[in-house]
Amino acid sequence: MLRCLLLLSFLLVGPLAWGQPPVPYGHNPKAGHYATLRGVKLYYETYGTGAPLLLLHGNGGSSQDFQQTIPYFAKRYRVIALDSRAHGQSVDAADSLSFEMLADDCAALLTHLRLDSAYVLGWSDGGITALLLALRYPGKVKKLAATGANLWPDSTALMPALWQQLQRGYQEGRTQTFTDPKRRNDWKVFRLDYDQPHVPLAALARLKAPAFIIAGDRDVIRPEHTVAIYRSLPRAWLWMVPNSGHATLLEHPDEFNRQVDAFFQARALAPPAR
Description:
The protein is of the alpha/beta class. Helices cover 32% and strands 19% of the residues. It is built from nine helices and eight strands. The chain has helices at residues 3-6, 70-73, 99-112, 125-136, 160-173, 181-195, 223-231, 248-251, 253-265, and strands at 32-37, 40-47, 51-56, 77-83, 118-123, 141-147, 211-216, 236-241. Helix 7 (223-231) links the parallel strand 7 (211-216) and strand 8 (236-241).
């Protein structure tokens, strides 16, 4: 969902540790790379070694949002933190944007990096992209964890406050002509969540990768929608994070990291209870 509504208060960098400056995740020249794929200049950062783990941020965000996630997983995984097209340092001058495009970008990046498959962790729009990546490219995803994801954009999936705010934002912007490149890009990014996604629950039955479906108990995604996603998956875990909003990985970073890591490391997954 929209970064300006849900995220800004969580992006504070902590105090210096052991006299060293904090790592500038999302703007780190030592870890940053560009790859021109599918007509888009994609930016990503890599950390650590081990099994590849792709991190996918939410709407309006960037790889910077994983500042409390990357240090934990870089101890065991080769972390690839991507700025989605039209976000962060990834350049995209096109007028259209879709979750299918974002998923196709991820597949292209993994191929570019000569990776057959990866673990995937997605937050919000990144969770939607993770699900679509696993559906469109089954062999590319070992396991996926998605927190705060929705499958369609209406009041049956989103809590009333967010749905109403999206409606107001659309009414305010739909008659405007955006000539400034940044404002035009911001409108395109806004429209992504207003218009999309459109994934039927029945499609999830085709998802081969084990999935960890996560949401806060005070998330902007309706809890019944999260549960419906979980119940529609062949092999899945469900975690409704107590005392948490949409930013589960920032509000409860230590527990979040441990739980997701445990899921990735688990050898077997039983089918969900119906």
